[in-house]
Amino acid sequence: MAKKHKHFETSVIHEGYDSKDMLGSLATPLFQTSTYTFETAEQGERRFAGEEEGYIYSRLGNPTVSVLEERIAALESGERGLAFGSGMAAVSAILIALTKANDHVLCSSGLYGCTFGLLAMMEEKFNISHDFSAMETKEEIRALIKPETTCIYVETPINPTMKLIDLEMVAEVAHEKGIPVVVDNTFSSPYLQRPLELGCDVVLHSATKYIGGHGDVVAGLAVGKKDFLDKVAMTTLKDIGGIMSPLDAWLLLRGLKTLPIRIDRHCDNAEKIFGKLRNHPKVARVFYPNDESHPDFPIRQKQMKRGGGLISFEIDGTKQDAQRMLNNLKFLKIAVSLGDAETLIQHPSTMTHAVVPEESRLEMGITDQLIRLSAGLEAWEDIWEDLEQALNNL
Ligand SMILES: *Cc1c(COP(=O)(O)O)cnc(C)c1O
């Protein structure tokens, strides 16, 4: 699918929709329907045979959802987009589409907790094994690729330590062996990082986060080559059934329009808070990939427009001190998830990463003193005032 608009800021608003097709409606109409009527039995036959374009049933396609799929494909510079009922529905549909029993998946060390859980289930049920790699060098990745490796699965920035992986480098090694690279781009959004432009093959999102941006939708998206996503649409999406509802697609189209403005503000706020946190005596370490002090800063400069809205930091103290810091907050919200207008703060070792065995968790750098903050859109001075008093009162 050819992109119609040159600039991202225009594409987020216009791509995939023409009001002329919809009675002039400026906003994309919400097609809240489960099924579509055929004019004749023969038309139904042609639709099912794929000889005539048109909608059949909303699990197979819906006009509101289709606009979102075209828009995200344009934003990620891919051929086709596909919408799912959650980020995990996207992750599972893509991973299942790329593997069969006894295959192997090579992953970045540091994965979203439920992706970790999914891989464990795939191993138990289908003997699909996996290995983790820091993916710092080509040699390290080559050494872990097996004859049965059918997928390389990467998250960058890695939650919650904000380690970065050089996507261009990973794609080059993977393609020596013809292995596709899948990237979970949730933390960056396509405004900051576009893995397909760096040579990766499939990009996916928990649209629940920055793409929705308003904390009111759980949804997932994937973008890649048309042939591959056509296959996913007709197999692991259609038959497992984790589809997106038309209302959620409508809300995401609305959220997307302000994505560049929101992300710039999330980044501005994160940069300011990072500067304050690193100088606070109760803070032992701060993880934010936008500064010379971060070992992956050169990768950030190479592949991300800005540093993003997430910061993690370690309290100089104990697990109880970290929990007390959260309890001391006056208006900032204690919650998992990220990318919302509200600043959200959470304790990974007892919340998002509680399911990860302690040993793996510590290997991933997730100590009991670690706190993750998703910078919201509030005035940064107010965010800092609340954080500062919570730290000072430890
Ligand atoms: C939230 C998240 C997911 C899962 O998405 P859901 O929409 O909650 O199913 C996957 N990957 C990352 C990086 C996430 O932050």
Overview of the molecule:
By secondary structure, the protein is α/β, with parallel strands linked by helices. It has 2 domains: 8-256, Aspartate Aminotransferase, domain 2 (3-Layer(aba) Sandwich); 259-392, Alpha-Beta Complex (Aspartate Aminotransferase, domain 1), CATH 3.90.1150. Helices cover 39% and strands 14% of the residues. The chain contains 15 helices and 12 strands. The strands form 2 sheets. The chain has a 7-stranded mixed beta sheet, sandwiched between helices. It has a 5-stranded mixed beta sheet with strand order 8-9-12-11-10. Helix 5 (113-126) links the parallel strand 2 and strand 3 (129-133). The chain is globular. The termini are far apart. The model has no long low-confidence stretch (mean pLDDT 96). The structure holds pyridoxal-5'-phosphate. Belongs to the trans-sulfuration enzymes family. L-methionine gamma-lyase subfamily. The modification N6-(pyridoxal phosphate)lysine is found at residue 209. Keywords: Lyase, Pyridoxal phosphate. One of its GO terms (molecular function) is methionine gamma-lyase activity. It catalyses: L-homocysteine + H2O = 2-oxobutanoate + hydrogen sulfide + NH4(+) + H(+); L-methionine + H2O = methanethiol + 2-oxobutanoate + NH4(+).
Task: Write a short abstract of this structure.
By secondary structure, this protein is α/β, with parallel strands linked by helices.
